[in-house]
Amino acid sequence: MLSPEEFGKLFDTFDREAFRLETLDYYDAAGTRKGLPAFLAGEEEPEEFKNSPWVTTVSKAVQAGKRMYRVHVVTTPLTDYLRFEFAWGYRRNAKAGEEFYILNLAERDVPGLPDHDFWLFDERTVVRMEYDEHGAYLGARVLPEACSGEYIAYRDLALGQAEPLSTFWERHG
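-> structure tokens emitted (173 positions)
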């Protein structure tokens, strides 16, 4: 498993692009436990959500000419968590320059996608994300570089079937 420092360094050292595939309907994190109830109660997004360290990471990368993008595989109707993630998290990160695409399996069948999350850096470094059955992050591990072709194909398959978040949100938000 990568240490948090080793994993974080990948976001500072990639050259061109960082892609993520997300497959879960819920990610259990401290921000989720605090933010989701506030979102569901109709409260305003707290300032600490708007200025998260991730926003800084994305902004720096995009300003340096790098691309950060992801596809989230979902099934509608959206869970409360996904509505929260898209409305507060994704929209905030999109303002910093991250690109978001949604692949709705309720609208199309896409065989061949993996059942796990991953990051793909510069089409070379694959980091498989590990979560427990409740969406709690367990860690991440770098896969052998020989796996990169398989993960490029997963990325291309997901992107080829996904739609931009803004288009998806108009219909399902």
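The helical segments are 4-13, 30-40, 47-50, 53-63, 80-95, 148-161, 165-172.
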